[in-house]
Amino acid sequence: MVRRKVSAWAGFVQGSHREELLICQFSDMTNSKGCIWSGGNPFAFSLPLVLAQLIFIFFVTRITFALIQPLKQSMVSAQLIAGIILGRSGFGRFDAYSALIFPPEGRMVLQTISDVGFMFHVFVLGVQVDPTMLRRAGRNAVLIGVSSFLMPFALGGLACYVLPHLTVIDDATAHFLPLLSIINSASFFPVITSLLSDLKILNSEIGRIATLASLVNDGCIYASSILLTTIDASSNYSKWNGVLAIAWIGTFLIVIVFAVRPLVKHIARTIPEKGAMKESHFLMIAVLALLCGFVAQSLGQPPAVGTFILGVVVPEGPPLGSSMVYKIDSFCTGLLLPAKFAISGLTLDIFSLGRGKSLLGVEAVILLGYLGKFAGTLVSAVHFAVSFQDAVPLALIMCCKGIIEASFYISLKDTGAITSEAYALLLITMLVITGIVRPLIWYLYDPSRRYLGYRTNSIQHLDPTSELRVQVCIHNEDNVPSLVNLLDVSNPSRRRPIAVFVLNLMELKGSAAALLVPTHNRKGKPKLKSLPSRSEHISNAFNILAHRNQGSMMAQHFTSIVPYATMHDDICTVAVDKGVNIVIIPFHKQWAIDGTVGANFPAIRMVNQQVLHKAPCSVGILVDRGQLADNTQILFGHSLFRITMLYLGGPDDDEALAYCCRMLGHPHISMSLVWLKHSSDNIEKSMESHMIQWFKANNVDAGRVSYQEEVVNDAVGTTQVLRSLEDSCDLCIVGRDHKQSELTLGINEWIECPELGFIGDMLATSDYSFSLLVVQQTPPGTEFITTQPLQPVASSFYSGSDKYSQHSASGKYSQHSASGKYSQHSGYGPFG
Which of 144, 454, 696, 810 is most buried, by the most CB atoms less than 10 A from its CB? Predict the structure, then answer.
């Protein structure tokens, strides 16, 4: 018989706060060295045991998340629930399971590893924080953040004073109730932004208010914590201990700001904007994070506080911040962090709640904190002109708790500051309230509600001599030449001016807060560290175009840094605020020189589909195959740039034709209108579209403008006409949707990209080499036109130059007011 070996002996001894478990670990029981072949138990050794624990925790967490994700719950909730399932409230009630998977000696190693993982996770959260946002927060956001802290703190403090007179409160509970009221007043910035990102409302109006308010709330929490630490140290030891604590913390912050921060910024400057950071740089910053954790722990603070402070001084976003997040986040968050909450769940026993004393008072303070948070946010938001319909979800957002609060609860329990029963109440209440609130927010608040149902003037219904407002969207610098030249062929003139709104779109990487700011007229203003140099390059290209057409074109620039999932919200927000007539968005595929697809961006396709569905104006998708990117033909007129408008009928074709009419008169383009008709149609003039009639009456000549009717019998004939355009066209313009007829019967059965329509989808295949612009006039479900400008709620919550909504496109030729009100012409003129 082979004697079963164990790696440690354990017993209980009296600790500093309570009776604690003492574990004696054998030094030679680390690696099993293949003991399974000799009949041994690998779970008796430290390394195999911790590996098995991490695997087990990972799978339980992922299964839990898969079950609760349809209810709009977060990964943090899944990790906490998994910890409860694995602990004494779940599987831990079985002694054989506990002895095998989570023996006392196995918990120590796992807890140490999980704490290191949590430190680096908090470091990543710090990297994603942009402290300069506090400078951009307006007065209203500051007051909402302060009131969301003061109201729950006041109610909690009142409860701490009143409860001992109403019920029995033991001394231990009475001691930590004030601390509890402070913690429940928190709305931590990483928690709120993570919630907003999960619910896809990070860049919404309410999302931006909540982001700023939570950042202000964090400042209140940190100031209160330092004050409370000083008072506690002075009362328990001596008055000088509190002063020394503040002095050492201040010294630590000074070293971080004036010594470590310049070093980190120097490292960031050495990394190319689109390059990768060196491994030596990564290791240097990782060691600095460990050092900051060590110093914070030595000063009596949680080690995660030190790593968070270091993360804040690391420049967020690319190239350094996003690289650090990419290298650390997946491993620490996905594998090590769940172990942190699994360990906390091992000691949580929800069945012991009924046996604790003073639990009613603890729960009263907890609930009053949530109530105060909701009321404080709701009242202040309504006072600052946030509608009640939006203020309710905003207040619910600020009530949500997450990973930072859970870690505080665990830390307080481990240090004996709160009892196990109070810890269980805090954790269970957080899970229940946050679990209820998250789907409520998703149900109550839809950011697209702000612009759905609103409609700016389409090009067709716009006075031909009034200003045309065009919004162009840039995903990368390769989009710039084609969009610049498309605006150039749109023929800006003093009689038909064009206002251009350039929206530079970037994916949110290495940062927690979405950004939408104007980047024009920023001379003398501080440059936002979140904006890379490409913003200036893009702005310069369109400014040169506007300067070349001075007096007939002006350009304003905006930069949006958001997740792809909600990028369409910023596009539609700018379109509404600026009264845009048409939004031009690049196609998600890019072509190589040989005519094949060189790059494919599914995320951009998702954005385009959302814009087509929700945009408050006309939308054009530009498929560029290189003709538009070559500006010599358009600028210098070595040969005419050939544009063909393919007309089949319907509102989208009318809108496309109206845009073509704007291009007429450009000295270096030729325009050809091809009307596809069925052979059985009545071709009398009375049956012609009013757009066709106007085009024929005013623009057809023997020179650069031509018109032709193609009579076909079926989809085969339509395909033949399309193929005939190959050698006589540089840019084809077509509507997205058409009247259903035999001309297109069968074509839509092979459609690959529905966002282009069936004709556009056919022209976007590799069989054709010309560029394509597909135009949609009215998104589905949008029926009416607004005549009032929409003022964004969040504009008053940004200070200084970042009120992106207050920049108008008015110039000496503009017919729009400085308030952003756009043209109210509707249904008159040759296009009406």
Answer: 144
